[in-house]
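Worked problem 6 (solution included).
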Amino acid sequence: MRDLAEGRADLDPEIPVTLTSWKPEIETTPWLITEVSHDLSDRALTSSVEMEVKT
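Solution. The predicted structure is:
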């Protein structure tokens, strides 16, 4: 699971993802969101995503 610095309420499972600012091997790999959780507190909205390689 990867936590995001800012919450993203627009993320859902099955959305393809392109990563940037990572190693070239990671950036050229097609990723797919498999799980998303959102947490809204009195301080912020946070989101966590789990991804797998898109086949």
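Discussion: Helices lie at 24-27.
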